Amino acid sequence: MIELPPDMPRLRTLRTWYEQCLREVTIAITAAEQKEREQEQHEQRRATAAEPPWLLGIGPGEIPEEVHAPGCPMAGQRQMRPISAEEARRALAETVPACQFCRPDSELGIL
Q1: Per-residue pLDDT at 43 exceeds 90
Q2: Which of 8, 26, 67, 107 has the most CB atoms around its CB within 10 Å?
């Protein structure tokens, strides 16, 4: 246990000093938590940006023929164009068929 002074003026001074220390520690904790949240958001954005692209099979005359999920083994069978997940959703909604093997419509939540 700490040796505390017996008189009120010094005890009050100590209390004031400890309250100030506590405020500073609280501010530092809040700043550290904010920095951690920002780092996690940055990592999530970086991971999302690093996702492999969805693929759109292109037929003669640049006509979209089929949407493929990233890594589909059937995607190498014809000419492909990389697209985002949002573009893949839009293509599927516009009646471009989904690959029967990788089922991008299921992965994107479109059934």
Answers
A1: no
A2: 67
Domain count, the chain: 2
| Structural domain includes residue 38 | yes
> What is the domain extent for residue 23?
7-50
Contact 53, 88 (CB under 8 A): no
Percent of the chain with pLDDT over 90: 62
Same-domain check for residues 37 and 59: no
CA dist 45 and 43 (Å) reads 5
Residues contacting residue 72 through CB under 8 Å, at least 6 positions apart: 55, 99, 101, 102, 104
The yes-or-no verdict on residue 50 having pLDDT over 70 is no
- Supply the pTM of this predicted model: 0.54
* Position 30 in a domain: yes
Listed residues 15, 31, 50: the one ending a domain: 50
